[in-house]
């Protein structure tokens, strides 16, 4: 079996779970309040339990330098992506006041949590480092989104740092504190077991709900005059920015476990969270939705190709 097929086999189940969520929404099994409640449950309980389960006591994070690398590259890759996306949006004719700034934010931020996790777990089984580093890297992405990204989108100084204080952020901080203080040994085994049980449900539930959210956002009318946005989205999120990420891995002394994370991150579609940011802070919501939908559909085919290329580049191909 060739590498592309192996990675495609790892990604297809994820999109099937998303499709199940979309169908559940379409046939009326998930009301809006249920969707909101489940996502809050995932964000504030299930994902934090998963983070604590995989980060606390993880030997791959014994050196603080890898945490600095993870947060630093998470932040830097997104910040570098903002002007690239803005320029491509301008080349494709996206206008000021009609979505160019929103495009630059949404297209620059890949789905950095729920989608890459199961792919990484499949490609690098029995390796604790990459799974834990997804959340460390994600912290850097969150900082970029809620500071530089929000400043670009709203043109308002003083990004709301309180938005960073969410369940995953608190879980990462607590986990790293326990690791470097030696407090990880104080967690009772029964509590670790309970958090492991809750954490294992986080990813399938979250992916299922992403499918439901995409279904709720979907509207045939959104494809009217979508050609420019579609072209710019695919070129930016699924071609140029992946090449930028893989180039950084190739030329910088990125720790091996973090490089594995970034290879998978490079193939991901646009994240959903920037749609929420656009709604809250005066962005062009139709553009944000188009970017997410277009890149999500296209990445079914492009993600395995990007990940396979990255693995060959770093000599990780079987």
Poorly predicted sequence stretches spanning 5 or more consecutive residues? none
* SSE string, helices as H and strands as E: HHHHHHHHHHHHH
Q: What structural class do helix, strand and pairing data support?
A: mainly alpha
The top level CATH class name: Mainly Alpha
Beta-strand fraction estimate: under 5%
N-to-C terminal Cα separation, in Å? 10 Å
Mean pLDDT: 87
- The CATH architecture name reads Up-down Bundle
Q: What is the 3D shape?
A: globular
How many beta-strand runs? 0
Tally the structural domains: 1
* Main pleated-sheet profile: none
Q: Return Rg in Å.
A: 19 Å
The number of helical elements comes to: 13
What is the CATH topology assignment? Na+/H+ antiporter like fold
Helix percent reads over 70%
């Amino acid at each position: 079996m060739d590498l592309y097929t192996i990675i495609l086999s790892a990604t297809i189940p994820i999109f099937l779970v998303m499709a199940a969520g979309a169908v559940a929404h379409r046939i009326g099994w998930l009301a809006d309040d249920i969707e909101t409640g489940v996502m809050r449950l995932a964000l504030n309980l299930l994902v934090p339990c998963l983070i604590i389960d995989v980060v606390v006591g993880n030997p791959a994070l014994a050196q603080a330098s890898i945490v600095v690398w993870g947060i630093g590259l998470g932040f830097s890759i997104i910040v570098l992506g903002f002007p690239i996306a803005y320029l491509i949006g301008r080349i494709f004719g996206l206008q000021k006041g009609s979505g160019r700034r929103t495009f630059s934010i949404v297209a620059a931020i890949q789905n950095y949590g729920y989608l890459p996790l199961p792919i990484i777990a499949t490609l690098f089984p029995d390796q604790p480092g990459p799974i834990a580093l997804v959340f460390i890297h994600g912290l850097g992405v969150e900082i970029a989104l809620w500071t530089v990204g929000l400043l670009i989108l709203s043109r308002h100084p003083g990004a709301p740092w309180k938005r960073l204080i969410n369940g995953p952020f608190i879980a990462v901080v607590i986990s790293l504190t326990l690791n470097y203080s030696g407090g990880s040994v104080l967690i009772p085994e029964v509590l670790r077991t309970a958090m492991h049980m809750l954490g294992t449900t986080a990813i399938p539930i979250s992916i299922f709900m992403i499918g439901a959210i995409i279904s709720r956002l979907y509207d045939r009318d959104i494809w009217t005059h979508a050609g420019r946005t579609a072209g710019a989205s695919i070129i930016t999120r699924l071609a140029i920015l992946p090449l930028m990420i893989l180039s950084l891995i190739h030329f910088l002394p990125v720790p091996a476990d973090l490089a594995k994370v970034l290879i998978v991150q490079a193939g991901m579609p646009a994240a959903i969270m920037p749609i929420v940011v656009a709604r809250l802070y005066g962005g062009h919501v139709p553009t944000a939705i188009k970017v997410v939908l277009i890149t999500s559909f296209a990445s079914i085919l492009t993600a395995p190709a990007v990940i396979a290329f990255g693995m060959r580049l770093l000599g990780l191909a079987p």
